[in-house]
Amino acid sequence: MPATPTAAAVLLATADDLLTDSPDGDGPLTPAGRDRGAAYALRIALEAAVDAALTAEEAELGGLRSMRAKLLCLHHYAGPARARRAHALWNRLSAACKYHHDELGPTHTQVRTWHAAVDSLVAELCGPAANIESP
Fold it and tell me: Most distant CA pair in the chain: distance in Å?
């Protein structure tokens, strides 16, 4: 199922909801769990935006399953600067999503910063005036 820009927008809103403090405490979710959950939503939003950008180019890249391969292709279709930003963000978010008992999870400030960066990149890749470079 190809991703759509609206999928990225929904995931960004989900991440924002997780990062917003709620007065009722959200039940079993801890602040660290909310931050890690927001990181997951941001990573998937970024993946949806990359999928949408590659689909918009009709590059027949639907067979690619690896995000690393898609990010390499993005270098050609969206330009090197955007591709580098997307790759760096995806790597940071992937590391933040993994739980290791001997490492601290991402901080709220880190996830907020990543949210702004992903939001900007999603707008560039999926926006109506996306300036995707042609091959």
Answer: 51
Residue spans of the domains in the chain: they are 5-126
Per-block mean pLDDT, blocks of 10 residues, the chain (135 long): 68 91 67 90 94 77 80 89 95 89 86 95 76 46
Angle at which helices 31-56 and 80-97 cross, to 10°: 150
| Single pTM value for the model | 0.83
Query: Which residue type occupies 33?
Result: G
Residues 69, 5, 41, 89, Cα dihedral to 10°:
50
Contacts of 93 (CB under 8 A, 6+ apart): 39, 42, 43, 46, 114, 118
